[in-house]
Amino acid sequence: MSRLKAEPAAAVRSMAELMAIAFAMETESAEKYAELAKRMRDNGQARVAEVFERLVREETGHIENVVRWSRKSDGNDPDLRQLRWTPKDVFDDEDAAVVSPELVDAYHLFAMAVRNEERAFAFWSYVAANATSMEVRSASEEMASEELEHARVLRIERRRAFSSRRDAEATFVTSGDLANMEEQIAIRLNAFAAFRGKHDKAVLSCLATEAEDLAKQLTGSPLGSSNSISNQSPESLDALCELLAESYLNAGESLPFQADRDRAQILAATAIKRLATLRYLEERPLESPHD
Prior knowledge:
Layout: H1 15-42, H2 46-74, H3 106-129, H4 134-165, E1 171-173, H5 175-193, H6 198-220, E2 226-228, H7 237-254, H8 258-283
Antiparallel strand pairs: 1-2
Helix pairs in contact: 1-2, 2-3, 3-4, 3-8, 5-6, 5-7, 7-8
């Protein structure tokens, strides 16, 4: 699951507090991944340990970015004494610490990491929505944007891991398939909007319009065929959005022409942001459609 189990406990009041929260979150992730890497090495799973160690390096880089940001903001390193509350359940190892090491593989590890980044995006989106100052809101939105970028990179690694373990012959997705998926997403977004409150309905309607426009673009100006990560048509809106994002990422690496690859990467960024927004809205309490 990539949903938050609990909303942030209180509004963030200052940049110092925000930096302390970010530092605490990234440090927890790095420490948890390091513990998992050690467990895998101790149990003879060197290749899996290497994946965790890579995730440690990624999180360490995130920590360094937070420290630089904090120093630029007020000249000081993040100070955990600024914490009035501690973020809970943003990081989830999904039982990797207890499951048999032989059953853990790179694909599931990167999938877990993607979900952790998505939860972090949802967390910072909540912080931004409830910020008490424009400075904190802007910084929180930037944090959320960075988490989406982290998720995008990890999605690519997840797909590579999936491809490396896949035994079945690859299926293909065409531009027509992509256009059809965008059309289906637009229909389902509009249907979902009917059950939401005024704010969510407006956001979902914009996403639906965006999907309709992309479907028309893909029909009028097709992308080439590329490998598909699945030969099944998802039933849920969430899964369909996920599949489309992965398909764009795949096209962004596998299409023969650079212009098409660049276009696919832009489409992937749009699809990933849409998926994250959808999951964020699904986290929100259900309001009356008339609110």
